[in-house]
Amino acid sequence: MKYNELVAISGLSGLYQLLSTKSDGAIVKNLDDNTTKFVAARSHNVTPLDSIEVFTMGENVRLFEVFQSFKLHEAEVENMDVSKADNKTISKTFATLFPEYDKDRVYVSDMKKMIKWFGILNRMDLLTVEAPAAADDVSTEEVAAQEEKA
Given CB 3.0 to 4.6 Å as the disulfide criterion, which of 21, 38, 71, 111 pairs with 94? Predict the structure, then answer.
């Protein structure tokens, strides 16, 4: 399973792996209990995590980059129980984890989701960054050298 296969579904808590799509919905697998279910497109919106961005004071940031910022404070995130914490505590913790967020447009409910999702993805080790291949670096340098000659 890869990060780009993961989706969030409106009206349902947790994260899901997208297994297949159909004209009237999608077949997904719940990451918490590994159950497979059909989600009707008429009732729910299926949103890939890859497409989610977080509002900042500058340009929006992809959710994966927010999770990478969370990794720097991993112990603090793991110790937090968002179901028992009050809104002030969640906001304060989120500001520590990702200080660039737009305080007017990112709601506490969004912060709770991101913290929960980070816990799930971190446990499943789906937040590792793949190093770019050395061949890609060489080809980029070769292209730049060829452009300079032209």
Answer: 111
pTM, full prediction: 0.81
> What is the block-wise mean pLDDT of the chain (150 residues), using blocks of 10 residues?
93 95 95 94 95 96 96 86 92 94 96 94 84 44 46
Residue 56: name the closest of 98, 114, 2 by CA. 98
Domains of the chain, earliest start first: 3-49 (2.30.30), 52-123 (1.10.10.1650)
Residues 6+ apart with CB under 8 A from 3: 49, 50, 64, 121, 126, 127
Which neighbouring-strand residues pair with 27? 20, 38
Q: Is 149 helix (H, G, I), strand (E, B) or coil?
A: helix
